[in-house]
Amino acid sequence: MNRTPSSPVSSSATAAALALALGAALSLAATPVAAQSGATEKCFGIALQGKNDCAAGAGTTCAGTSRIDHQGNAWKAVPSGTCEKTASPTSPTGHGQLQAFKEKKA
After folding, report:
1. What are the CA-CA distances from residue 10 to residues 2, 6, 15, 45, 99 (Å)?
2. Which of 14, 81, 83, 90 is the most buried (most CB within 10 A)?
3. Mean per-residue pLDDT of the chain
């Protein structure tokens, strides 16, 4: 059985492919799970005037239509698990909410 030696180009290509695969695997391992999946949640009461994501309730149609800062029925998409840690001066709890709410008076 004759075995032909591999060419230097073939060996270099194989080594490069293995290095790229290892690098990709290591970078994925270092990325948090939520960031990998891109998981987000709607967070009400944190958007600034005109900076909300889509459909902010009655009187609004889509993105950018919130009338006031921290409007209770206007939402922004945020990374999962961060909404209720984000400040909202109009929220009853002082933080973003996972559902629309009636703004408290300042």
Report:
1. 18, 6, 9, 58, 58
2. 83
3. 77
